[in-house]
Write a structure and sequence with these properties.
mainly alpha; 5 helices
Length: 144
């Protein structure tokens, strides 16, 4: 699920019928379950991405150090590193590596989805108070 799909879904779910505030109050639990399921799935997806990043980071470290095995070179389809890199310079090579950078971008996007879902869940937790305030306002307008 993309970030835009999450926002579009919540845009539909965030609207409520002011004439049926009781029904809207009952929908909170269902919406909370829906978005918490999304949140949990996206968080697990992030953990998987981070594990893949860690595995690739280790392999790239060994590649730049010149200690990656020949079979690992073949398995990953990498040519042996022709450069002699000082250990102190390896972080620079790792930071600029396009494979690691690509995964990092995906991880950042995933974190953004998780942050959005956390915000939606917090909003849903406060929705009961918003509905109560709307009910109180209607009572006030009616002079009750």
């Amino acid at each position: 699920m993309t970030l835009d799909e999450i926002f579009d879904e919540f845009e539909k779910d965030s609207k409520f019928d002011r004439t049926e505030l009781g029904d809207e109050s009952l929908k909170i639990a269902k919406l909370h379950a829906k978005y918490f399921r999304m949140f949990s799935n996206e968080r697990l997806r992030l953990k998987s991405m981070q594990q893949k990043y860690n595995e690739l980071h280790k392999a790239k470290y060994e590649y730049y150090m010149g200690t990656l095995s020949e079979e690992e070179h073949q398995l990953r389809g990498w040519e042996p590193n022709p450069l002699r890199i000082l250990k102190a310079d390896i972080p620079m090579y790792l930071d600029s590596d396009s494979d690691l950078g690509g995964i990092n971008i995906k991880i950042d996007y995933q974190k953004e989805k998780i942050n959005a879902l956390e915000g939606i869940i917090k909003h849903l937790n406060a929705r009961g108070f918003q509905i109560k305030a709307a009910i109180d306002w209607e009572k006030f307008k009616a002079g009750i």
